[in-house]
Structure formats: structure tokens, C-alpha cells
Amino acid sequence: MRGQPVLVFDGDCGFCTTSVRFAERHVGVRARAVPWQFADLRALGVTRERAEREVLWIEDGRVYGGARAVARLLIAAGRPWSPLGFVLRVPPFLWVAEEVYRLVAANRHRLPGGTPACALPPNSRPAGSPPTGSVISDPAAPAPAVSENR
Question: pTM of the predicted model, to two decimals?
Fold first, then answer.
């Protein structure tokens, strides 16, 4: 049985939250967007450490992180975005996308929408509530069998 994909992101990071909201409005994310702080990571088959490190796309029991997650999001969005997503999966474009993702992730607190909280380790960030409009993991949804993909 195929379930709806889940996009897991850092809900404490202004840049990350702004990026997800932008994608929801303009790209058409076809997934449940959930801040990792309010997701049932165990049910999703994801460690907290990985969720803190990169955006995750979870679909059909597989976990894609970073640039691969972005590529999957674009593919799932359909045209006109899906061709770009397919291109991002192919080396050398994948290698470039991974480097750009690492650069953005390391500097997200300096980017538009970023906040000083983005630069803090997750345990040092101020506690908050789920962002408006976010979808919390559905406890009734079956936990997928998950394999880690990079």
C-alpha cells in the first residue's frame, strides 16, 4: 500500500520553514510537511540526528536526505518541476546539488528568512509550537518499513 510522502524539515529554522512554505505555495508539494520537532521520527524510521542535519523525503519506506530529498520533492510536484528533479538525480548534477545543499545548510542562518536560532544546536534553541499550517504525523497511519537512501 502506498502512502502519502512525508517531508520532514527543521521547524525551528526560519529559512527552512520559509522554504517549505514557499514550495507548498509555488511548487505544489505533494506530501505532508512536518517539522521534525513534532514528527514521530521512530515511526518514520528516521533518527533525530539525521532529521537535525538535513531535510528528508520519506516515501514508500525509503528515506532520501538533502539534495536527494529536494529532487524527490520536485519529481512528485509534477510538471514543470519534475524534469528538474530527474536531472538532479543524475551525476554530475547530483554532485553539484549535494554541494550546494551542504553550503546552504551550513549558512541557513545567514540567508533570507533565517534566524540566529538556525545557527544554534537544536538542544539550545528556544522551544516553540508547530508552525501554522503544519501537519503532525498521523498516529493512525501505519509506520512504513524504511530503508536509508543517501
Answer: 0.77
